[in-house]
Design goal:
heterotrimer; A alpha/beta; B alpha/beta; C alpha+beta; A: Rossmann fold; two-stranded antiparallel ribbon; C: alpha+beta; 3-stranded antiparallel beta sheet; globular
């Protein structure tokens, strides 16, 4: 049973520009949460810094608004300490692919079960419109004094190369389509990327709603498109990655949105830890007792001697 | 050399002796000069090192050349006669500056350039007793006796050294066998061969030399001794203290602690799992502290371990923890800086950095350990403080403490309590004022507790939502800082500073690993007619201002001496800032090597009796 | 020149204790004064692209190797690193 949308709203007033794509993303998230019936108390939204990173304050669920570029490592600590939480990262393109790009790659290597929602508008909005890592070379959005001379990073391709096991793209103004992608991403066990194209109405005069209109098309409407790895053979994985890669490179007159690649067969980081340490899957480290009622540590002197026996010498005088 | 040191330490501990051994090594993997410098005591657990040594054992020519002046008159030297003809000018791994300095000292002392020249100098001029052993011949004998390949036999080089030493020290073969069994547990053949070879060498040495360095009967009151490095001890403290999440990025000299914890991730006792620690190797130190803070928000006791370069990267997140009243422990092993500095050498030059790191003003606790026992309790206390006061805690150690091996009596559990303060693992369902202003320390429901909370690095209201309201700003700012006053009023002063001795001739003021040398120097100086005291500083914020101020009042400025491993006398500056007392006498060392007792004694005399204001120590290669 | 391991091209000296070394023909460690019928004197024939100077404990190009030999250094095709050398570096209890 889906719960009411109101359950996921806060009464914090949003100070985003009117028409900002972030509104669409928040709306899609709230709808997705409602349809998934997520428990707000067991859901954590972690964000970095930037317009998009204010997102947690507008959603009624735990919110952790962190540092520029560092949402992923904060989220990683939260998720690993308590894997039963649903953890979602919101960040901008500068945040996740510029200052935080190393963490973006690292989370993919681990396949931790978190969802990364990338607010991709090609500019640094909050600092007044500088070029972000997704702005292409020689493009000049309105507040740039000269054209951008750095190449763009391709979020879809980078996610695939880094080991993300769910890679998708949505469009901020197609709220219901985006909602479905976010739902699939949250349900997926493993690291998921949702790259969300969004106009920045104030600073990006190139990638406007008009630009996207007519260029965007849905992958799922392409005949025969199936991004999911079903059998998990090496051949199948290679084929699915190759097709996703081709789609990732498409830009210009036709820009795909939808799910690019899904591999549900890769063990998550949490599974890998549990393999080494079976207790981990039963009892998250964040929930384990560490002391008795009286405050005495669980590891008392006798336990200490057993755990560290090989460090202890019994003195035997002669 | 590691193996020799470990086996000897185990053998000595088995018989109730106290041992400390400092490991000095270059920042490389293999092929440069490294050595273990040990101190053995029958009377107490030694915590300091000194020169000259009475007994030296060398595996190669470079060691003989490097340490010729470290051996005391009438001492003992064990070396490989196979390297007798090696010249000091043909040791490629010796740094040119070291060689030049040694060569000029050799010229002054009339020593030639070969190992045999050095040995004969020691024998004739310094009455050092020489035991030359042809290692190749001994290994060949072992090979034949056990029908070994040379590949197997050559492993026993270090056996020759520790066995000869054991013989000279008069250690009984059983204790040596015990040391061997501990070192090579589970490798029966190696144990057997080591025992055979060592007993043969011990016997040979005894027959020829007796036991000239026989140790007196130990009087240390301990039925059990832990043998561990400072890194290990901190790891043990964290395990007892309930650590559940440790993140790290590999760095010297901190990584050994995380590796130790990784080996003890699963806390099983008699097949029953008491819990487990998640040790997480991150992509960098930023991710290390960020994930540790995240795990702390979720309710796990969390820490990260690092050194200077790593902490430099953590600084922004440190401020986030301060702003969000998030508990996190940073175990900080100081090494020589700035920049890469001296990765494998010790230092105490990061105190001021830890006190002021990160922009803005927020409360933090900075504490420093001076010996393994302090390090153990501090590791536990650091986690208690972090949760009780909801702030970042920086636990400072130095490489000397981290990488030295100690015999440590079993700690007392009477003093150990887990204090999680107002941490709520379960909370009422629904929106919760995480930063409730009605008290400086608010209840802290963890993520997943049932509460819904927000956190933000921006200034925030009681719910954790962003606000720039000036009145809220004042209230939140003061709420956070007030916690430091509470910590100041609650944390017992004896955990923050301690005065050893009461003599009025001088007062040493130091911290960290300086403690061992300072305490021993007090005794030596007392025998020489100077009665002094040592003020050991352990917590730098909140600083024990009243206590330290009272102690300092009892001394003339000219008799108060800062003893530190840095050039700025950083702790003395913190003293001045908090108490207004200006320290004007200094004994400083910044070579990266530990302060040795004998040089400290000499420096105190020069200041107190010779009128010198500052002494820079430089002993040790 | 004595026909022992110490001057044999099949031998790789232990980089720290060069009185022992590894024989590539017999796949075993030997002392430097050992000898056998597989002995071949070290030649810088250009087949190996890097050599090991035990005297200087460094890698050499063929040209450098020739120069080092000319001045009396002990040059080999390679050095031997004990696979268990880690135990001698640092292995906490």
């Amino acid at each position: 049973m889906a719960s009411s949308l109101a359950r996921y709203k806060t009464d914090v007033w949003s100070d985003w520009c009117p028409g900002c794509g972030d509104f669409g993303i928040v709306a899609a998230m709230q709808k997705a949460f409602a349809e998934l019936d997520l428990d707000p108390a067991q859901t954590v939204i972690v964000s970095g810094i930037g317009c998009s990173s204010k997102t947690p304050h507008f959603i009624n669920a735990n919110g952790v608004h962190t540092l520029h570029g560092r949402a992923i490592p904060f989220a990683t600590g939260i998720k690993l300490a308590n894997p039963s939480l649903t953890v979602i990262v919101n960040g901008g393109d500068g945040d996740l692919l510029g200052i935080g790009a190393g963490h973006f790659v690292a989370v993919g290597r681990r396949n931790i079960d978190i969802t990364v929602i990338l607010h991709n508008n090609q500019v640094y909005g909050l600092t007044k419109g500088q070029a972000s890592p997704t702005l292409r070379r020689w493009e000049q959005v309105k507040s740039l004094p000269r054209p951008n001379i750095q190449d763009a990073v391709n979020p879809i391709a980078l996610a695939i190369a880094s080991g993300f096991t769910f890679v998708a793209r949505g469009y901020a103004l197609w709220v219901d389509h985006l909602k479905e992608i976010i739902k699939a991403a949250i349900k997926h066990r493993g690291t998921a990327l949702v790259d969300v194209l969004q106009p920045c109405v104030t600073y990006n005069n190139l990638y406007t709603a008009d630009f996207y209109k007519g260029r965007l098309y849905k992958l799922e409407e392409e005949p025969g498109w199936d991004p999911v790895v079903h059998e998990n053979s090496i051949e199948e994985v290679e084929e699915k990655i190759a097709r996703a890669w081709d789609k990732a490179l498409e830009w210009g007159n036709r820009i795909p949105v939808g799910v690019f690649y899904v591999n549900p067969h890769v063990e998550t980081f949490e599974d890998r830890i549990a393999k080494l340490n079976p207790l981990y899957s039963e009892s998250p480290v964040a929930r384990q007792p560490i002391a008795g009622e009286d405050g005495r540590p669980l590891v008392g002197v006798e336990e200490f001697k057993k755990i560290f026996g090989k460090y202890i010498v019994e003195v035997e005088r002669k | 050399m590691e193996t020799s040191g470990q086996i000897l330490t185990s053998a000595l501990a088995r018989r109730g002796y106290g041992v400390v051994s400092d490991r000095e090594y270059y920042s490389n993997i293999v092929g440069r000069h490294s050595y273990v410098h040990m101190r053995v005591s029958a009377r107490r657990i030694p915590l300091s090192l000194t020169y000259p040594v009475q007994l030296a054992g060398f595996l190669d020519a470079e060691s003989v050349f490097t340490h010729v002046f470290d051996i005391g008159d009438g001492g003992w030297l064990i070396y490989d006669t196979g390297v007798s003809r090696t010249r000091i000018t043909r040791i490629p791994s010796m740094e040119p500056q070291v060689r030049d300095r040694l060569l000029s000292a050799y010229r002054e002392a009339g020593i030639g350039e070969t190992v045999s020249d050095v040995v004969s100098y020691l024998e004739k001029e310094r009455s050092v007793n020489i035991i030359g052993i042809d290692f190749k011949q001994v290994l060949d004998g072992l090979r034949k006796r056990y029908n070994l390949t040379l590949g197997q036999a050559q492993r026993f080089r270090s056996t020759i050294i520790f066995a000869a030493m054991a013989g000279l020290l008069g250690l009984d073969p059983d204790s040596v066998d015990y040391g061997i069994e501990r070192r090579f547990a589970g490798r029966a053949k190696i144990v057997e061969m080591n025992k055979f070879l060592s007993s043969m060498i011990i016997e040979d040495v005894r027959r020829e030399y007796g036991s000239p360095l026989k140790l007196s009967t130990p009087t240390i009151d301990a039925r059990e001794l832990i043998i561990a490095t400072g890194n290990d001890i901190v790891g043990m403290g964290k395990v007892v203290g309930g650590l559940r999440f440790q993140s790290y990025y590999p760095i010297t000299p901190a990584a050994d602690e995380s590796t130790f914890l990784e080996a003890h991730e699963s806390l099983s006792v008699d097949g029953e799992a008491l819990g487990n620690i998640l040790v997480f190797q991150t992509e960098d130190e930023i991710a290390a502290i960020a994930s540790a803070i995240g795990a702390g928000l979720a309710g796990a006791r969390s820490a990260t371990a690092t050194s200077g370069p790593g902490f430099s990267l953590m600084v922004e997140a440190l401020g986030w923890a301060g702003m969000n009243e998030a508990p996190v422990v940073i175990t900080y092993y100081q090494r020589g800086g700035p920049s890469t500095g001296q990765p494998t050498r010790g230092s105490q030059s990061d105190l001021l950095f830890t006190l002021y790191a990160s922009h803005g003003e927020f409360p933090r606790i900075v504490l420093a350990s001076g010996d393994p026992e302090e390090a153990f309790y501090d590791a536990i206390n650091a986690m208690n403080y972090a949760e009780r006061y909801q702030l970042p805690v920086i636990h400072l150690l130095d490489k000397f403490l981290a990488n030295s091996t100690f015999t440590v009596p079993l700690p007392s559990w009477d003093r150990i309590r887990i204090d999680r303060g107002k941490t709520l693992l379960e909370a009422p369902r629904g929106v919760f004022k995480r930063f409730d202003k009605s008290e400086p320390i608010s209840p802290r429901p963890v993520l997943g507790s049932g509460a819904i909370t927000w956190h933000a690095g921006d200034e925030h209201d009681e719910y954790g939502h962003i606000t720039e309201d000036p009145v809220n700003r004042i209230e939140m700012y003061e709420k956070r800082m007030k916690k430091l006053e509470i910590a100041d009023s609650e944390i017992p002063v004896e955990e923050r500073a301690r005065l050893y001795g009461g003599g009025k001739d001088f007062l040493l003021v130091g911290w960290g690993f300086v403690k061992g040398a300072a305490l021993e120097a007090l005794e030596v100086l007392r025998d020489r007619g100077l009665e002094g005291a040592y003020l050991h500083l352990r917590m730098f914020t909140p600083f024990p201002t009243r206590f330290v101020g009272e102690v300092l009042k009892g001394y003339d400025a000219g008799r108060v001496i800062a003893v530190e491993h840095n050039i700025m006398a950083q702790a003395a500056r913190v003293v001045a800032q908090n108490t207004g007392f200006l320290v004007t006498r200094y004994i400083l060392k910044y070579t990266g090597r530990p302060i040795y007792t004998m040089e400290l004694v000499d420096a105190v005399e020069r200041i107190i009796e010779g009128g010198v204001e500052k002494v820079v120590l430089r002993y040790g290669e | 020149m004595r026909r022992t391991c110490a001057t044999c091209m099949h031998w790789r000296p232990h980089i720290l204790y060069p009185y022992i070394g590894f024989c590539n023909i017999h796949s075993t460690l030997t002392f430097d004064d050992h000898h056998c019928d597989k002995y071949e004197p070290i030649k810088i024939n250009g087949r190996a692209q890097l050599y090991w100077c035990q005297t200087c404990r460094t890698r050499l190009s063929p040209e450098e190797a020739k120069a080092h030999i000319a001045r009396g250094d002990r040059v080999y095709i390679g050095g031997y690193i004990d696979p268990d050398v880690r135990e001698e570096i640092y292995d906490s209890f």
